[in-house]
Every structure is written in C-alpha cells, then in structure tokens.
Amino acid sequence: MSSGSGGGELFAAGGDAGRLMAAHDWASSPVGPVDSWPAGLRHAVRTVLVSRFPMVLTWGPEFTQFYNDAYAPFIGAKHPAIGEDIRVTLAEGWDALGPPIAHAMETLEASWLPGLLLLLERSGYREETYFTVSHAPAFDDDGTVAGMHGVCTEVTGQILGERRQRLLHELSLVGGQLGDERETVTAMCRALGGDVLDLPFAAVYLSLPGERPYRLVAATGCDAALLPEVAGPDALPTDVGHLGVTGGPFGDAVTEAVVLPVSASHEAEPVGYLLVGKSPNRALDAEYRSFHQLVAGQFAAVVANIRAFEAERVRAESLAELDRAKTTFFSDVSHELRTPLTLLLGPIGDVLDDTDEPLPPGAREQLQLAVRNGQRLQRLVNDLLDFASIEAGRATPVRVETDVATFTAELAGIFRAATERAGLRLTVDCPPLDRPAFVDPRMWEKVVVNLLANAVKYTFVGGIDVALRADDDGFRLTVADTGVGIVAEELPQLFERFHRVAGATARTREGTGIGLALVHELAALHGGTVSVASEPGVGSTFTVALPYGVPDVAEGGSRAVSPSDAARGEAASWEEDTSRPGRPAAGPSSGASILVVDDNADMRAYLTRLLGPHWTVRTTANGEEALQAVAEALPDVVLTDVMMPRVDGFELLRALRADPATRQVPVIMLTARAGQEASVEGLEAGADDYLAKPFRADELIARVRVALDRAAGRTAVPSTPTPPADGVADRPTAAHAPIWAPPDQGAARPVPPSPRRPQQAAPGEDAHWRLPSSASSIPVLRRRLRGWLEAAGVDEDQAYDLLLAACEAATNAVEHAQGPTEPFVDVSAALGDGYVRIAVRDYGQWRERVPSMDRGRGSTLMSAFGEITATPSPEGTTVVITSALVGRTSAAASG
Predict the structure, then answer these.
(1) What whole-number distance in Å separates Cα of residue 706 and Cα of residue 749?
(2) Residue 260, Ramachandran bin (φ over 0: left; ψ between -120 and 50: alpha; else beta)
(3) Residues 793, 764: Cα–Cα separation, whole Å
C-alpha cells in the first residue's frame, strides 16, 4: 500500500530502513498517511534516516517507532519493527527504558544513561546487554512534545571485557601468593565468585603427578556434594540443571557448564580440569570461550609453578641432605684416618729418632720420605675434618689476645725457603697493630698458611707481598702475588669448596680444593670477610678483613704464639715442590734412559731411586718440560704421571705420537685414577702401558723392562701358517702353529708385539692389540677390529661374523682366565692370500668364574664362522679363528 504523496522524497536517503518506511502502510497506523504528517515529524524522520549513528524516534501516545539501519542490529530478530509500538518491541527491557523516556518527555530534559543494563530477547534468549543511551523530547509543529528522540550505542563488549579483566587480575593476585597447592587453588576458586555474571559456579579437579583420575579440590557457587568427587574429563557434567544454580543479572537458571583442561601447554597432559557454569544470559561466543581459557590458564600456571617450586624445594632438601651426608662422611673418614696415620707416623718417627740403633743412610732416606708424605696426608685429613666441623656447625673459634703482627710475620717467614728455591721474592710488612686483636691462633694460622701456599702454587716469576694494616673497625691482611691470575668468570666461585679453576697453570695439580673455602669459612667464624682482586697474567691480591674482636677466654696480656708443626710441614712440602729436577741419575752402562715426568718432587725422587740402579733416569716436573727434555735427548722410555700442570700426561702423549721422531718411544702412564675405565682410556690414547698408583716396585721395573725389550726389537716374531696353493685355508691342526706359540711347543714365552700400531692397518698389514682383561675392553676391541677388517677390504657380512666370533673369544678370555700372570688380553689379526686369521691370547688358567649359562654356546657360535683351534698352556690359552675370504673390496684389493 502506498505511503502517500511525498513519502518517496522523505525516505529516499534512508537505505533499507527508508525502503521499509516507504513500503509501510502508514495510513492504517496511529500517525496516519505520510502526506498528513506535521513538519516536525517529517523533519525528525529525515534526521533519523540520514544519520549513521544508531537512532530511534517514537511519535504519538502509541509510541510508534522509526529507526535507521544502524539501529536495526540492536533489536536483532525483532527487526523489522518500524511503525510498531516500541513498548512492545522492547517489552522485556521497558522497565529500564520507560522511566528515563517519560522523564525526558515530561521535563523536556535530555537523559544520559551510560552502560545501561538492558534485557533483550533479540537472539532467542534472555540476553544481558549494555547500552549508552540518550533520550530527548521530539516536538510537534506547535511546540508541544509529541514523541521521543533516542540515540544509543551498544557497549556490551566493553562492559563484559572490563569485568572479565578485573576477575583475571584478581585471580593473578591470589595465585601469585604461592603456598600449599590445595589452599592456593581453593583461594583462587573463591576469587571466581567475584564474577558470578560470567561464572555462576566453578569447580576445580586436580590429579597428583603421575596419578589418575582427577579429584575435586575446590568449588564455589554450588553445592559441592552434588558434584562427582572423582571424575575424568569425560565424566564431568555439562548439563548442570540439577545443581539448582541461578546466574546472570536476571537470576535465570544455569543449565550448561564448560569443561576446561588445566594444562601448561597444548601438548602436555592436563594436571586437572576446571568445570565452570555458563551464564544463561550470554551466548558461548569466541570472546566468552577465550575468557574461559584465560581463567583455566591462570590455574594451570599457578599449579605448574607450585609444583615446580615444590620439586625444587625437595631437590634442594635432597641436596642439603646429601651435603650433610658428605660432611658427615668426611668427618667420619677423617677421624678414622687419623688413627692409622698416628700408628704409622709414630713408630716411624721413633725409629728415626732412635740414636742407640741408627739406621743406614738409605733406609733413613726412605723412611723420611714416608714420614714427609704421611704428614702431608695428615694435613689433608685435618683440613677435611676442620671443614666438616665448620659445615656441621661444630667449629667455634676460641679468641684470645694475640700478637697478630708478629705471628703473621713468623708464618710468612716459614715460606721463605720455598719462595727462594722457586726464585721468588717474598716481602713481609706487618707492623704492630695499635689495638689488641683477639683471634683463634690456629684458625688464623690456617688462613695465613693457605693464602701463602696458594700464592706459591700459582706464582712462577716475580714475588709475593704479605702486609698487615689496621683500620678503624679491625685489621686487614693482604697477600699479593705476581702469578698467573684468575679470569673474571671464575671469581664468584673461587671460595666454594672443591672448586678449582679449570686450565690454571700451577706448580702442581695436587690439593683438595678446599684451601680458599676454608679461608672463607674461618674468616666468617671471626665475623670477617675475604675478597680477591685478580687479573690474568698480572697476579692476584687476597684480602682478609677481621674485626679486633673480643676475648672468649679471659687471659692477661697478649699471647705469644709460634707456627705449629703442621704449618711448618706445609711450608716444607712447598719447599720440596718448588725444587727443580736434578741431574740424570747415572745407571748401569746399558745405555737405556728413562724420562720420569711427575709434578710431585717426592715421587720424582722415589722413581729415580727405584729405577736408577737399572737405567739412566732424567726427571721433569710437567709435560712442557718433558717435551723440552725429549728434544734435547731422546729417551728410551717415558714414564709419566697423568694429572700435571701446564701440559698433562695425555697432552704429552699426543704430542709424542704426533711427532715422527718420537712416535715409537714407549710411554708408560702412572696415575692415581685407578680402575679399568682409566686403563682403557690410557691405552686408547696410545699408551704402551698403564699403571695405577700405588704400585709395587718390582711390577714397575718389570713393565719398564718389557717396554724396553719391545722397543729394542727383542719381541719374538709370531709364525703364520701357510695357506694351501688354492688359497683356501685348511682346517688348523696341531701342526699349524697359532699366532702365539705356547710354551709347551718348545718356544720361549712370547711377548706380544707392541700395541702402538695404528688402529686401522693398511690392507695386508698385521695388527696387534693389548687390552685390559675387563668387560669394558670388548667394545674397544670391536671398534679396532672393525676398522682393521674394513681397511683390509673384508666382505661386510664376513666381517660382521668375524667380529662376533672374535668378541666371543675375547669375552671368554676375560670371564674364564683366572689368576692371570698379566692382566691383559692380547688380540692379533693377520690377512693372508685367501684367508683371514684372528687370535685371542689370555694369561690365566681357565675355570668358571661364575656358574656358566653358556653350555657351549660360545664355541658353537665361533665354529659357525670359521675354523677354531684352542691351545691351552700353563701360562694361558690361545684361541685362533681362521676363515677363508669370501671377497674383498676393489679398493683394498688394489691396495
């Protein structure tokens, strides 16, 4: 039906709303046909239509409404409602809109309502919405109020966002107060009650690490008794009408819930689940879901942090307990060591002091060496015991008045011989203090002695300056040196126990690593501090600052204290350590020379005395000096320690093996690192032999003699059976001599060839290896033999079979050869024209070490891959595996 004349022009600029108005039957409406509308109505309608801001106009007592396109989304599914009574269209929200509209029309005052809560049913449910609204009167031509002019904008998203942000903030504050997991989660759950519009109720289910299912931990806004106590994610209810919870701003029933995983990441298994009620007045849109995820994320982060802190606390407690156990162990062991040390040093000292029956010079010298090193061990034990007592809180200083200046100067003086022997300058500047000082004399002695010993250890040129100064609060001791210095990265850990600066050049590698830590603890017991300033290549300055203190024991006057025997012994030990290696010890006229390399002066002297009667012995203090000595005169054997300053034993070995001029020099390594793993490491590095300290003198002499015999070419050359002309090896018999001829066949006891051959031999070259009689040697043998077979061009499948057979033979030798005369297994591999032969030799008597589960499997396995002969003898057994070559690679064949 036509809207009447003039309508087309009036509604032309109104878009969809204009078209709807043009098509509306206004003649049957309360406002009548368009051409009868007063100018005020026309003007108001035109203003609404051309505006791009949401606007609505009501006219007449029936509240007939007009609105534009921008307003249409606000009423949702009720659009189009042009020409209808706005009180009907917005019936659910009229309680909120009616009063301000009436007020504006009656008083002629425009209203302003920011964030007005409105109940709308524009989407098929009772919706919580918020609008900022302004109402103004609309005037007729005669100036009377004929309607209402409304301008509005929806701010629902803004209101909800701010409200939800406040809850997340409050949740973070509560969760930030990390405590007991259940208590914290319960407090966070209560905090969710601050936003019942978005979260009408909530329940948290958690599981202990590694446990399932999930248990109810906390709930808010509902009766927890109506929720399952234990549930998995699939068993948590999402239809929750039975809980009787109401929510939203209008008190509607809550019937839906959302189950959210509480997980630190998408990949991790959830530590729990969060069950939250959905507002009956909001759709579960993307913003609502994102809010839920943020809430669950807060819980996940808090639980993860609490559990991480708890794990760290347990770890810290475990470490503390371990630390206490180690301290107790050090204390107990130190106590236990003191008794045998006393019983060793006491009788030896009595023998040395016996003037009625004086000892021969040689015996006296050896016993003095034993006493000197026993006292050194005793000092180390005492240091460990002191440190253990401090760690356990049992050490308490007994401060007495002490002439600190004189005592410090005397302590520095006992190091003068060591510094002079090392070519260092020692200056002592300790003027008397102007006030009495109270210290524990023996603790102060340890502080001074440890700092001076540290300075001597790391200073090679220049000097050491000791100074004592007074200030207002106490006195300061400084020990400055011109030594190697300390890199900045190491300074923070310098006073930690057992910390040693990696790679630092020192006179010796010996020491417990607790000297500076002990200084730090002793200074702290006196209420003082210790600090260090250092620069690599320039030197270090250690400063100990102590208060003057108060006496713990009432005594009259200052005590005169002298350095203890322990302090003098420490200084004397450094006098020995700073001594330079002497001239070569002339041995018999055999011409053989031994180069001994060890950073311990007593060990050098002992080895010289031990080897000197047999060979000419030269000594050096570290690998760097050893290389210089080798360059001056090539030794026949190098006998070296492993742990040394500057260049250690392994670096020395690598340098000797890299130089063609020294590659064939036998090297025997001595070390305090006992065990099969250490020996395998040494042999793998290319050493000819490896001997752990302490060792027997006759064993060392025997090993040096064997090394000299090998180097001189006195080793018996093993015989190799000749294969038949057709290239196929016959089955070995007694007539075919194995690679090592056993003694019962008339041969002298063989000495296997030197193991200093390369691991991967050239095609056709024999290979020989000597390995410790230990299961850890089998992987070493496997690697070496695999490389040799590959270099020899043996077919891959045949090489695999031979590896199995050879390793089985070596395993048998390790497991069954008892009481070996030499703790080794020798393996030899030879390649002939059309055959390959591997021999495994042990030096013991075969018998079961443990009840065998083999039942002949080993020999059966080896026989499947080649011809086997086993030749026993009183001095060991030789097993020979011979296999006809299947084929060789072209590269190996051409080589």
Answers:
(1) 13
(2) beta
(3) 9
CB-neighbour burial class of residue 53 (10 A; exposed 0-12, middle 13-18, buried 19+) = exposed
Lowest mean pLDDT: which of 585-589, 740-744, 822-826? 740-744
Short-list 468, 469, 465, CA closest to 452: 465
**CA nearest 117: which of 131, 105, 101, 138?**
131
Tell me the pTM. Answer: 0.45
Per-residue pLDDT at 745 exceeds 60: no
Cα gap 640→626, rounded to integer Å: 9
Map 860-878 to HEC letters. HHHHCCCEEEEEEECCEEE
Identify the pLDDT of residue 334. Answer: 60
The conformation of residue 843, written as its DSSP 8-state character, comes to: -
Q: Where are the beta strands (DSSP E) in 482-605?
A: 529-535, 539-547, 593-597
Round to whole Å and give the CA distance between 490 and 895: 54
Q: Which residue has the higher pLDDT, 153 or 347?
A: 153
Task: Give me the pLDDT at residue 739, please.
Answer: 34
Q: What is the pLDDT of residue 296?
A: 92
* Mean pLDDT value across the chain: 80
Do the Cβ atoms of 767 and 801 come closer than 8 Å? no
Ordered by where they begin, the domains of the chain are 7-154 (3.30.450.20), 161-315 (3.30.450.40), 379-576 (3.30.565.10), 580-711 (3.40.50.2300), 743-894 (3.30.565.10)
249-260: string of b/e by CB count within 10 Å (b at 16+)? eeebebbebbbb
Report yes or no: 135 and 109 within 8 Å, Cβ to Cβ: no
Specify the range with the lowest mean pLDDT, choosing from 69-78, 161-170, 272-281: 69-78
Mean pLDDT lowest for which of 195-209, 267-281, 535-549, 870-884?
870-884
C-alpha–C-alpha distance, residues 703 and 688, integer Å: 10
**Is residue 485 a contact partner of residue 501, using CB atoms and an 8 Å limit?**
no
As a whole number of angstroms, the distance between CA 666 and CA 181 comes to: 66
pLDDT at 847: 61
- Residue 440 reports pLDDT greater than 80: yes
* CA distance linking residue 785 with residue 770, whole number of Å: 12
Q: What is the mean pLDDT of residues 825-849?
A: 82
Provide the token pair at 73: 């989304």
Please report, for residues 322, 324, 327, 372, 389, the alpha-carbon distance to residue 319 in angstroms, rounded to integers and kept in the order given: 5, 8, 12, 37, 18
Give the residue among 251, 276, 289 at the shortest CA–CA distance from 128.
Answer: 251
b/e per residue, 120-143, with b = 16+ CB within 10 A?
Answer: bbbeeeebbbbbbbbbbbbbbeee
- Mean pLDDT, range 741-745, rounded to an integer: 34
pLDDT digits (tens, 9 = 90+) for 778-813: 878 888 888 888 888 888 888 888 888 888 888 888
| DSSP characters over 127-168 | EEEEEEEEEEEEE-TTS-EEEEEEEEEE-HHHHHHHHHHHHH
Give every CB contact of residue 127 below 8 A, 6+ residues apart in sequence.
119, 120, 121, 281, 282, 283
Residues 65, 54: contact at Cβ < 8 Å? no
Task: List beta partners, residue 145.
Answer: 139
* Average pLDDT rounded to a whole number, residues 517-539: 89
In the chain, how many H helices and how many E strands? Answer: 24, 31
Q: Which value, in Å, is the radius of gyration of the alpha carbons in the chain?
A: 48
Q: What are phi and psi of 777, to 5 degrees?
A: -80, -20
pLDDT of amino acid 573: 76
Diameter over CA atoms, the chain: 150
Structure tokens at 216: 């109810």
**Residues 248/128, Cβ–Cβ less than 8 Å:** yes
Q: What is the pLDDT of residues 530-566, one digit of tens each?
A: 999 988 888 899 999 999 888 887 666 666 688 888 7
Contacts of 800 (CB under 8 A, 6+ apart): none
